[in-house]
Design a protein that fits this description.
The complex is a heterodimer of chains A (about 110) and B (about 120). By secondary structure, chain A is mostly beta strands. Chain A has no helices and nine strands. Chain A is about 0% helix and about 45% strand. In chain A, β3 and β4 form a beta hairpin. The radius of gyration of chain B is 13 Å and the shape is globular. The chains are: A mainly beta (about 110), B mainly beta (about 120). Chains A and B meet through β7 and β8 of A and β5, β9 and β10 of B.
């Protein structure tokens, strides 16, 4: 199983929006509505931000939203704040109790 | 609040076996709604799923690591463990343990991670 493809970097000014893509195949992203997104600050463990494509865990601001079309999922961060600057990873269920992560995207708040 | 904490040697010699333990607090490792998983992150790289275990001992491994990998669970200690044999420098990474939903499919709680370096 190959890693899901994400752009290496994305950026936006405070208050703006940034969208990160996550491209897989019909065997993972396209085949299941089990895409999740994780935020990772330097030196910290990942934090779940979105699951089941577009659901937010309790405590995650509604500025974070997810979507999917075909084999590509997307995470949008609206109203960018300084603390949103982090690495973001997507993940998908890949069948037969296997999971695959994305290559990661560094979000910079300009 | 669910918390996970990885523990184990930070330095492993090439060809030896890497062994880590994850101690869970705030939830029972026998909770039927969850698997318990290991994920690693090579230096300045992305995340790689290693494998999961269910409390009854059933396991699922990343095919690329399966031949060297063993994950076990100790319900009496609320811990699960990872053993990766015949390690090389390519296994140098930060290793994370996490709680993995079985119905709501996600990695919802993570440990802080532990760096394991493979070097002589």
């Amino acid at each position: 199983q190959s890693a899901l493809t994400q752009p290496p970097s994305a950026s936006g000014s405070p208050g703006q929006s940034v969208t990160i893509s996550c491209t897989g195949t019909s065997n993972d992203v396209g085949g299941y509505n089990y895409v999740s997104w994780y935020q990772q600050h330097p030196g910290k463990g990942p934090k779940l931000m979105i699951y089941d494509v577009n659901k937010r865990p309790s405590g995650v601001p509604d500025r974070f939203s997810g979507s999917k079309s075909g084999n590509t999922a997307s995470l949008t961060v609206s109203g960018l704040q300084a603390d949103d600057e982090a690495d973001y990873y997507c993940s998908s269920y890949a069948g037969s109790n296997n999971y695959v992560f994305g290559t990661g995207t560094k979000v910079t708040v300009l | 609040q669910v918390q996970l904490q990885e523990s184990g040697p930070g330095l492993v010699q090439p060809s030896q076996t890497l062994s880590l333990t994850c101690t869970v607090s705030g939830d029972s490792i026998s909770n039927s709604a969850y698997n318990w998983g290991w994920i690693r992150q090579h230096p300045a790289k992305g995340l790689e799923w290693i494998g999961n275990i269910y409390y009854i001992g059933s396991t699922h491994y990343n095919p690329s690591l399966k031949s060297r990998l063993s994950i076990s669970v100790d319900t009496s200690k609320n811990q699960f463990s990872l053993k990766l044999s015949s390690v090389t420098a390519a296994d140098t990474a930060v290793y994370y343990c996490a709680r993995v939903g079985r119905v709501v499919v996600n990695f919802d709680y993570w440990g802080q991670g532990t760096l394991v370096t493979v070097s002589s």
